[in-house]
Amino acid sequence: MKQSTFLAPTLRDVPSDADVKSHQLMLRAGLIRQSTSGVYSFLPLGLKALKKVENIIREEMDMAGAQELLMPAIQPAELWQESGRWEAYGPELMRLHDRHGREFALGPTHEEVITTLVRDDIRSYKKLPMTLYQIQNKFRDERRPRFGVLRSREFLMKDAYSFDTSVEALDESYQKMYDAYTTIFTRCGLDFRAVEADSGAIGGTDTHEFMVLSEIGEDTIAYSDQSDYAANIEIAAVNVTYEKSDEELSHLKLVETPGKKTIEDVANFLDVSKEKLIKSVLFMVDGEPVLVLVRGDHEVNDVKIKHLFEATIVEMASDEEIKKWLQTVPGFIGPVNVQQEIKVIADHAVESIVNGVCGGNSVDKHYKNVNPGRDFQVASYGDLRNIQPGDPSPDGKGTIMFKEGIEVGHVFKLGTKYSDAMGANFLDENGKNKPMVMGCYGIGVSRIVAAIIEQHHDDDGIVWPASVSPFDIHLIPVNMKQDDQRELAEELYVLLNKEYDVLFDDRAERPGVKFKDADLFGFPVRLTIGKRASEGIIEMKVRHSGEVIEIHKDELIEAIK
Ligand code: ATP
Ligand code: MG
Ligand code: MG
Ligand code: MG
After folding, report:
1. How far does the centroid of ligand 2 lie from the alpha carbon of residue 337, in Å?
2. Are 351 and 203 in contact (CB under 8 A)?
3. Where are the beta strands (DSSP E) in 165-213?
4. Of the ligands numbered here, which is closest to the C-alpha atom of 155?
5. CA–CA separation, 535 vs 14, rounded Å?
6. 41 C-alpha to center of ligand 2: Å?
7. What's the 387 CA to ligand 4 centre distance in angstroms?
8. Residues near ligand 1 with C-beta < 6 Å?
9. What is the pLDDT of residue 271?
10. What is residue 43's DSSP assignment?
11. 78: which residues sit within 8 A by CB, 6+ positions away?
């Protein structure tokens, strides 16, 4: 590529509206331009990096046995109503309507589309397992678009969806994707960590996020200094255990349980320790305060407990028992209604109720053997969560430390949430109809490009890892007016282009301008052709180490390797 006609408009000054390094550098090096808030064009240089990342992802997805398809960005509202997310997804969903008044969404994710697609075309266990993926623009009306393409409203995502015949088979599909993600982020030159995560509005159980370690990350990772334990603090907090004094618990008066007025009474009655009781999860259903007692390492924040002067104690039962119970809750008609009624609970627990996996408010009913995570998703309390650096690690090994991370990938076990809601069934070996067991797996492709720059830059510009650099080589004749320099450069351009992606700075600019741009662009190898051109001598500079060597053109190909 010849730079004289290449669209890579560089900026000398730091743009005032860009707060983080990657955003500044992407603007300064002419990788992106903003169209409107949270919406960007990728210019040729940016697109080349994006394609490099995309291709790494594609290679690893294919290697893991996933098949590429392409789904529409425009999705009919009916699909989202079927899954219950038309209401639940909230204002982040970009909604539009056509000339006939029919409503649509611009896809922020594709569970609904893929589930109906597979539902209609796969009927037999013989076709399963199957994992499908696409690389496509997603739309989310982010409350605060920022940091350039790190959090934009239109962005490129790789999203994959797995379909299995059983929970055990899903475990395998999930592990394959998890491993592929590890390879992808490693190949992109990223320093990252996989962490346990909160399953959020999408629903589901087992889930991990892949976090690029960076001070500007919007997520905080709690990790142990002595083990592999690492979790998003959104979920880590609920695993913290701490002792509460009697005074701290005294405000808990549970009057609706006959004869059991205090936390002590209730604990004795249920034959659990007070500590376990305090690690319960609270919410309101239909105006009634409900305390779901969770056995396990879950806590609830005392601020919330204060709201519950009246509560009924329930332990968890099997899904079936709980579903039955839910039918008896007056006014329980579905997500919208429940959402309105719930005063304490966050999104996450709404999903749990809707899925019929938790609940309780009838006097003297006590469900047994709850398994948090399996039977119940713990509500997300947002800012009320409080794991802190210095806490003992929930796995009992070491001490908790904090680090900021940028979420670049996310893997979920969805289970049958969408296949149940949308009737995606298959016939098993015995001709029995069963819901498919699903997983979903996202990667922020455009976000990765910014995350790479965030981790790979210096004062002069970007320092691309070779695997994702837009060009391999920057070829720079110092003075195009010198015949020997220009001729050697042209000769090398033809030669190198056969094997490498070369940007040839054929501009009649001053050397200072050319070198400043070269450092800003940050390709791995810079070849400068100057005074010694007539001898066939070239200067080679390695961007990441700054190492400079002089080399004869005949030895060049060997040296670049
Ligand atoms: P975040 O927590 O940053 O809002 P998310 O959890 O909402 O992300 P997912 O639904 O898990 O995102 O989507 C899969 C991937 O898409 C994310 O891991 C992230 O890399 C990317 N992504 C999500 N939102 C954006 C965005 N607004 N801009 C760029 N990339 C995004
Ligand atoms: Mg988000
Ligand atoms: Mg997230
Ligand atoms: Mg996520």
Report:
1. 24
2. yes
3. 192-196, 207-213
4. 1
5. 40
6. 21
7. 20
8. 109, 140, 142, 151-152, 155, 157, 407-410, 442, 444, 446-447
9. 54
10. P
11. none
How many Cα atoms are found within 13 Å in the side-chain-facing hemisphere of 381?
A: 22
For residue 443, report the distance from its CA to the centre of ligand 4, in Å.
9
Using a 10 angstrom Cβ sphere, with 0-12 exposed, 13-18 middle and 19 or more buried, the burial of residue 302 is middle
Residue type, 518: A
Q: Residue 153: nearest ligand to its CA?
A: 1
Radius of gyration over every alpha carbon of the chain, rounded to an integer in angstroms: 28
User: Which atom of ligand 1 approaches the CA of 218 most closely?
Assistant: 3
Q: Which two tokens stand for residue 499?
A: 């094997």
Burial class of residue 219 in the structure, from the number of CB atoms within 10 Å of its CB (0-12 exposed, 13-18 middle, 19+ buried): middle
Those residues whose C-beta lies under 8 Å from the C-beta of residue 4, and which sit 6 or more positions away, are 506, 507
Among residues 220, 507, 154, 199, the alpha carbon closest in space to that of 357 is found at: 199
Q: Which atom of ligand 1 is nearest to the CA of 412?
A: 11
> How far apart are the C-alpha atoms of 491 and 497, rounded to whole Å?
10
Residue 71 CA to ligand 2 centre (angstroms): 21
* Residue 521: count of CB within 10 angstroms of its CB: 27
Residues 225, 398: contact at Cβ < 8 Å?
yes
Q: How many contiguous H segments (helices) and E segments (strands) does the chain have?
A: 19, 26
Q: What are phi and psi for residue 6, nearest 5 degrees?
A: -90, 135
Query: Ligand 1: distance of its center to the CA of 445 in Å?
Result: 10
Euclidean distance between the first and final Cα of the chain, in Å?
20
Ligand 1, from 20, 39, 157: best to mutate by most atoms within 8 Å of Cβ? 157
Atom of ligand 1 nearest to the CA of 442: 14
* Ligand that comes closest to the CA of residue 446: 1
Owner of token pair 């990788």: 31
pLDDT tens digits in sequence order for the chain, 561 residues long = 999 999 999 999 989 989 999 999 999 999 999 999 999 999 999 999 999 999 999 999 999 999 999 999 999 999 999 999 998 889 999 999 999 999 999 999 999 999 999 999 999 999 999 999 999 999 999 999 999 999 999 999 999 999 999 999 999 999 999 999 999 999 999 999 999 987 654 444 589 999 999 999 999 999 999 999 898 887 764 433 333 333 433 333 222 333 333 445 545 655 555 544 443 444 434 434 344 433 222 333 222 322 222 233 333 333 444 444 444 433 333 322 222 222 223 233 333 333 333 343 223 333 333 333 333 333 322 223 357 788 777 777 899 899 999 999 999 999 998 999 999 999 999 999 999 999 999 999 999 999 999 999 999 999 999 999 999 999 999 999 999 999 999 999 999 999 999 999 999 999 999 999 999 999 999 999 999 999 999 999 999 999 999 999 999 999 888
